[in-house]
Design a protein that fits this description.
60% helix; Arc Repressor Mutant, subunit A
Amino acid sequence: MINKIELTKKERDTIIAVGDYGEKDFPLRLVDLSGMLRVRPPTALNLVKRLEEKGCLSDEKGMIIFTELGKRVYDELVENHRVMETLMAKSGMDPEKACLMSGNIDYLIDHISVDRLFSGMGKPKNCPHGKKIEQIH
């Protein structure tokens, strides 16, 4: 899924920010997103527009929300991230560094490969930070 829409690193970070914030009761506003991404509001708006064109986000009266596709992409990114950081940590890398490195590659790896790695590791239940790894396929 991720590889079919070709995300940039900033677009990946935007999807993660919207998804992580979306666990709260109120949708994310552009000004909040720009703060989270550490960019100016016009840059955040450009990212939102690009992700709208790709079918991942919707800007409804200043509130940024996922489309159905966007939610699936977010879930896949989270799974990819947690599997990759778990693999790196199990290979001896510091968990914080593994998390940072995973954030740089999780959007580039196809999900079939991630599923194979996940199975090869014995399908661990949690990442090094204790967050649940949910297999979505």
